[in-house]
Design goal:
mainly alpha, 5 helices
């Protein structure tokens, strides 16, 4: 997978999540285990549009940089969620609901996916 593919598919995933957050009652995807707040829905929709747009309008260097930024930001939210445990402020930084372990795991999966797609494993000396 390359950055363009990541931005395309990741963008679609974010758009679907943003839409589901508005369509499903209370934004509940998996009940209390995973739900989306209005702030998250906006963030997912905006980031999804940016990702898909970048996949088709940005050059390869910019696509790689954006994918690396996604990896770092998703890693931050995944790790930060575990650090604050079950007591984060609602909509941390106005962007992310970090109340359940599933939130943290999904952010870490996104970070790993973006890191792999951007070739960050080479930067870290991994092959």
């Amino acid at each position: 997978m390359n950055p363009k593919q990541f931005l395309t598919w990741g963008g679609v995933v974010l758009l679907v999540l943003g839409a589901l957050g508005y369509v499903l009652p209370g934004g509940q995807i998996l009940g209390d285990s995973w739900y989306l707040t209005p702030g998250e829905n906006v963030a997912h929709l905006v980031l999804g549009v940016v990702a898909v747009g970048a996949a088709y309008m940005a050059d390869a260097k910019t696509q790689k940089l954006l994918t690396q930024v996604v990896a770092v930001v998703a890693l931050f939210f995944g790790l930060y969620g575990f650090v604050v445990g079950g007591n984060p402020p609602l909509n941390t930084f106005g962007l992310a609901n970090l109340e359940t372990p599933l939130d943290h795991i999904l952010h870490l999966v996104g970070a790993a996916w973006a890191g792999y797609a951007s070739g960050m494993q080479k930067l870290l000396g991994m092959k």
